[in-house]
Structures are given as C-alpha cells and as structure tokens.
UniProtKB/TrEMBL annotation:
<keyword id="KW-0547">Nucleotide-binding</keyword>
<dbReference type="GO" id="GO:0005524">
    <property type="term" value="F:ATP binding"/>
</dbReference>
<feature type="domain" description="ABC transporter">
    <location>
        <begin position="2"/>
        <end position="246"/>
    </location>
</feature>
<keyword id="KW-1003">Cell membrane</keyword>
<protein>
    <submittedName>
        <fullName>Phosphonate ABC transporter ATP-binding protein</fullName>
    </submittedName>
</protein>
<keyword id="KW-0472">Membrane</keyword>
<dbReference type="InterPro" id="IPR012693">
    <property type="entry name" value="ABC_transpr_PhnC"/>
</dbReference>
<dbReference type="InterPro" id="IPR050086">
    <property type="entry name" value="MetN_ABC_transporter-like"/>
</dbReference>
<dbReference type="Pfam" id="PF00005">
    <property type="entry name" value="ABC_tran"/>
</dbReference>
<keyword id="KW-1278">Translocase</keyword>
<keyword id="KW-0813">Transport</keyword>
<dbReference type="InterPro" id="IPR003439">
    <property type="entry name" value="ABC_transporter-like_ATP-bd"/>
</dbReference>
<dbReference type="InterPro" id="IPR003593">
    <property type="entry name" value="AAA+_ATPase"/>
</dbReference>
<dbReference type="InterPro" id="IPR017871">
    <property type="entry name" value="ABC_transporter-like_CS"/>
</dbReference>
<keyword id="KW-0067">ATP-binding</keyword>
Length: 266
C-alpha cells in the first residue's frame, strides 16, 4: 500500500504546489488523478518517487518511508515504482528490446548494463511482455520508427520490467488520438489487474478517467477537493475541481463511451 501523509511541496519561488495532501492507495487499485493545469498532479507523482523532493510530509510504500531514505536506499526503493511518462522517455536510437531491458538497470551491475548483457530470464520476460502488448514482432525496431501508441506500450513494458508494486503514470494519453488513448488506458488497467499493481494515473481527460478508473481524486490548488468513485463524479464535483462550467457534455461523453464499450463486448 502507498500512504501519503501531510505531503507539502513549496518551491523556492514561494509557489505552493501541494498543501498537506493525505492519500492512501491500496494494492491493486487504479486511481485517476484529475484537476486543472497547475493543480499539483505531476508534482504529487514526482514527490512519491522523489524526482521532486517534498518540503514536508511522509510517503510510505509497504511500510517503508520513502521520504527518509538516503540515496542508495532510495535507488533500491525506486525499483518498486514504475514510471510511465507523457513523452515516453525512450532512447530513440535504441531498439524496442534495448529500451525495455533498461527497466532492469536497477537490478544488474554497471558493466552488465554498459555492455547490455542481461540475464536470459530478463530477456525472456521482456519478450513475454512485448507479446502481451502486441509488440513482440517489433523487438528489433528502433524506437524512433514507432508510432505514439507503440512508444507508449514500450514505456509500459519498460516500467513492468522493474517488477514494480506501484505504477506512477503521468499523462499517458496526452499525445495520442482518442482511439489509441482508450486502448492505452484499457491496457494499463488490465495489466494492473493481472499483476495486482496499484497505480496513480495523472490524466486531463475526465471522460477517460471515468471510463477506466474506479476511484478518482480531484486536486485543486494543491489540495484534494474530491475523492470518490467514477459514478460519484458529477457536475457539482467537477465544478469544485475545475470551476464553473456546463459539464453535461463531459458526463454524457463518458456514459456514451461506456455504452459503446459494452456493445463491443456483447
């Protein structure tokens, strides 16, 4: 379980990005994090794995207080936190397989990683996961030859290669078309269910959040203003998160997509 207590981040400029956030995410739960730009969503995710250092508060993963770890212990703890980035963060000149295996860098020695000599079991797991996301046939392709959706799938597999307990997902669909966005969100949710992973997904698309996440947390000005189910996220709650607006089209869009998905399954 991920537990966040009193998490605060104030930047040197004086800007308050997070204001005493309390949050708990149990194993296996996929949680969508929504809110306007500047609400603190990306900062929250990056404070969890300490890519951004919190100003105060505590972050604990399975009882280990991440916010108190030294550099060596933090590197080991980060093995259990897979990060999926908006802009994929792939090395474009490397192949799909090489990018995927980079997810094991926290487990192999320096020289093994330098010469890209990974254990056979790691290579076999990489092929298995690439097959799971439909990219086994592209293992030897360079990353810069892939589409946006394919790159994001590679990023997902790389994160899973860490054998994480928690996925931190930062705007995974921001650069994708609507169909591919739904496919990527569906894939993340399915993989979390298959592997019992907790996930925090920072996402701007409210309809996608409603469609794929059972729990939604809304941030505004660094504070949690909504924490509930997708069904409980109505016009009043969206107004509390984003401000006054006619939200009927947003909610209807989510309902229609759910109906379309049910029709496809049927």
């Amino acid at each position: 379980m991920l537990t966040i207590e009193g998490l605060t981040k104030r930047y040197p400029t004086g800007d308050l990005a997070l204001d005493k956030v309390d949050l708990a995410v149990p194993a296996g739960q996929v949680m969508a994090l929504i809110g306007p730009s500047g609400a603190g969503k990306s900062t929250l995710i990056r404070c969890v794995n300490r890519l951004v250092e919190p100003s105060s508060g505590r972050v604990m993963l399975d009882g280990i207080e991440l916010t108190s770890l030294g550099s060596g212990a933090l590197r080991r703890a980060r093995r259990k936190m897979g990060m999926i980035f908006q802009e994929y963060a792939l090395v474009e000149r490397l192949t799909v397989m090489e990018n995927v295996l980079s997810g094991r860098l926290g487990y192999v020695g320096f020289w093994a990683s330098w010469f890209r000599r990974f254990p056979r079991k790691d290579v076999e797991e990489a092929f298995r996961l690439l097959d799971r996301v439909g990219l086994a046939h592209m293992a030897d392709k360079r990353a810069d030859a892939l589409s946006g959706g394919q790159r994001q799938r590679v990023g997902i597999v790389r994160a899973l290669m860490q054998d994480p307990k928690l996925l931190l997902v930062d705007e995974p669909t921001a650069s994708l078309d609507p169909k591919t966005s739904r496919q990527i969100m569906r894939l993340i949710v399915e993989l979390c269910a298959e592997r019992g992973l907790a996930a925090i997904i920072n996402i701007h698309d409210v309809a996608l959040a409603q469609q794929f996440a059972k729990r939604i947390v809304g941030l505004r000005a660094g504070r949690i203003v909504f924490d509930g189910t997708a069904e409980a996220l109505g016009a009043d709650q969206l107004t509390a998160i984003y401000g006054e607006e006619d939200w009927s089209q947003t909610i209807r869009k989510a309902d229609e997509e759910e109906e379309e998905s049910a029709e496809v399954v049927a």
